[in-house]
Automatic annotation (TrEMBL):
The keyword Repeat applies. InterPro entries: ECM_Assembly_Org (IPR050525), VWF_A (IPR002035), vWFA_dom_sf (IPR036465). SUPFAM superfamilies: vWA-like (SSF53300). The gene is LOC106546484. GO terms for cellular component: extracellular region. PANTHER family: COLLAGEN ALPHA (PTHR24020), PH DOMAIN-CONTAINING PROTEIN (PTHR24020:SF20). This is Collagen alpha-4(VI) chain-like. Its main location: secreted. Residues 10-185 form the VWFA domain. Keywords: Glycoprotein, Repeat, Secreted, Signal. It comes from the Eukaryota. It comes from Thamnophis sirtalis.
Length: 324
């Protein structure tokens, strides 16, 4: 039975393959990773695992969407060949970010917790701080295991928190300390708090005739770029949170005609492109005008709901009147 029976997570190992690690210790590292894999239920909708290796260069071993069962992942780990060069941890941190993106199996947009476990045995030959900050700002939780003689300050710059830094004397202690990390992944203590919820209302003022060239042109621009902007907004972190976790950002789309009627109201939901496209299909068929009633329509629907956990309300308006 797996240690975490119902846990969802994206877990990536970033392992040091430098020549300061003996073949025996590199083999130990691979064995411990396989034990960690057996601590979880590996499946497409449960825990996904990926592995990257760094030395002087960065090497993708396998992404999060390569294997969806324990045995397949362990076979991939067995195939890993040590790079045996210098220790460029900063380079590894910079390039490992791609592992967490949707194209490579990352589920950040699905609100799945994402974890990076860095295992290294020496001080980095390049700077680590900026690359680590980018990872943490994208909601990735970093654990660092440093083995041997190391620079503790450097390890803390990577993890961001002292309780996520594990200093070991040798590789024989790796298995025991890895169990502590697995336990924390299974029982995270910093899930989003209620004050991490942000509701964003989206309204569009189309005050030009709906079929005018200027209105049609701007609608095409908005349809092309607004979904990308909203998708990026949906993963912004640390706006109103005290925990280092993704904010719970929800969007609401409304089409108000000005005749005291609302043609479309999605309610507050996490970002979903299908919902946006439904909203836009309605929006492009009517003229809307920036009036007091238009603005009040957003406010009235806000106060009529239970908004006790809402901390930030943003009303986005696109004004196209006067374009030629």
């Amino acid at each position: 039975m797996s240690f975490c029976d119902a846990k969802e997570a994206d877990l990536v190992f970033l392992i040091d393959g430098s020549n300061s690690i003996s073949e025996e210790n590199f083999s130990t590292m691979k064995t411990v990773m396989k034990k960690v894999v057996d601590s979880f239920i590996i499946a497409k909708d449960k825990v996904r695992v990926g592995v990257a290796q760094y030395s002087t260069t960065f090497q993708e071993e396998f992404y999060l969407n390569k294997c969806f069962n324990n045995s397949a992942i362990k076979k991939e780990i067995d195939k890993i060949v040590q790079l045996k060069a210098r220790t460029f941890t900063g380079t590894g941190l910079k390039f490992v970010r791609s592992f967490f993106q949707p194209a490579n199996g990352g589920r950040q947009y699905d609100r799945v917790m994402q974890y990076l476990i860095v295992i290294t045995d020496g001080q980095s030959d390049d700077k680590v701080e900026n690359a680590a900050i980018v990872l943490r700002e994208n909601g990735i939780h970093i654990f660092v295991i440093g083995i041997g003689t190391l620079n503790y300050n450097e390890l803390q710059k990577i993890a961001g928190f002292s309780n996520r830094v594990h200093e070991l004397k040798d590789f024989q202690q790796l298995s025991h300390n890895m169990r502590k990390i697995v336990q924390e992944i299974c029982n995270p203590g910093d899930k989003p708090y209620p004050d991490c919820e942000i509701d964003i209302s989206i309204g569009v003022d189309i005050s030009e005739p709906v079929r005018s060239p200027s209105a049609i042109s701007l609608k095409q621009i908005i349809q092309a770029f607004l979904p990308r902007i909203l998708q990026q907004m949906s993963i912004v972190n640390n706006i109103s949170c005290t925990a280092v976790t993704p904010d719970d950002i929800r969007f609401r789309y409304q089409v108000y005609t000005g005749s005291s009627s609302t043609l479309f109201d999605s309610g507050f939901e996490s970002y979903n492109d299908e919902i946006f496209q439904k909203f836009w299909a309605v929006q492009t068929t009517v003229e809307t005008h920036l009036t007091v009633d238009f603005l009040l329509s957003f406010w009235d629907r806000l106060i009529s709901e239970d908004s006790a956990n809402v901390k930030v309300i943003i009303l986005l308006l696109f004004y196209v009147a006067g374009m030629t």
